[in-house]
Amino acid sequence: MKFSNLPVALSAMAATAIGVMPQAALAEPFEGEYLGLQAGVAITRVRGDALAGPIEDTAHKPVVIALGGFRGPLWSGSPLVLGVEGDIGFLIDEFDSRYSISGIAGYNLDDRALVYGRVGFSSLSDADPNSNSNVEGLMLGGGAELNVMRRINLRVEYRNIDYGTSAADPFGNTLNVRGHEVTGGLIFDF
Fold first, then answer.
1. Measured between alpha carbons, how far is 74 from 67 in angstroms, rounded to an integer?
2. How far is Cα 178 from Cα 165, in angstroms, rounded to an integer?
3. 72 vs 105: CA distance, rounded Å
4. CA separation for the pair 183, 37 (Å, rounded)
5. How far apart are CA 144 and CA 158, in angstroms?
6. Phi and psi angles of residue 156, each rounded to the nearest 5 degrees, phi first
7. Fewer Cβ in 10 A, N or C end of the chain?
8. How do residues 106-115 score in pLDDT, each as one tens digit?
9. Count of beta carbons in the 10 Å neighbourhood of residue 90
10. If residue 11 lies in a helix (H) or strand (E), which one and from where to where?
């Protein structure tokens, strides 16, 4: 997905949130539907290898701003919390779009704090300069949420994304792409 489609996707998420707002009065922290916005920093490392050894000019993207939105449901069974979350966003270096879907498992410390881990799938546009296509891979992460007001939570999170190794080009060059993200988020429970 290119950056030009991102505003449409974020608008659709916002419209969905507005449609379910009357249910918000019944929300409990860390249970039910939620919608959020996130911002932070991302590092995408692209390392290359050739048949004869490392590529001299391996691409490296510096620390960039990451922006996006997310949505999902959480189910609470006493202190254990399970959920599924989808998110969409972009990295501001070249407006590379990124989306992911993941499962969440957490522990509700009390009615105000939740710690959780996540595992899922992520896709990043145009990260492979050899093929000019998306890279996809396994995402692992974790974080903490704090309930600050009724129906409003704050989140801090780290994600490690292994986009894998690209197929060799005609010269035997391959690229290994890995991403790291640290974000903060604002969550609205419905």
1. 22
2. 9
3. 13
4. 10
5. 10
6. -130, 135
7. N
8. 999 987 899 9
9. 24
10. helix 6-19
125 vs 90: CA distance, rounded Å: 9
Distance in angstroms (rounded) separating the CA atoms of residues 116 and 157: 9
Q: Which residues have a Cβ under 8 Å from the Cβ of 88 and sit 6 or more positions away?
A: 1, 6, 9, 10, 13, 68, 69, 70, 97, 98, 99
Give the CA distances from residue 59 to residues 51, 53, 133, in Å, rounded to whole numbers and listed in that order: 17, 15, 15
The two beta strands, 152-165 and 174-189, are: antiparallel
CATH number of 3-189: 2.40.160.20
Secondary structure class of 38 (helix, strand, coil): strand
Residue type present at position 139: M
pLDDT, tens digit, 9 for 90 and up, residues 56-110: 444 555 688 999 999 999 998 789 999 999 999 988 876 678 899 999 999 999 8
Distance between CA atoms of 84 and 69, rounded to whole angstroms? 14
Cβ-contact 187, 153 below 8 angstroms = yes
Give the C-alpha distances (Å, rounded to integers) separating 25 from 11, 28, 170, 184: 23, 9, 60, 25
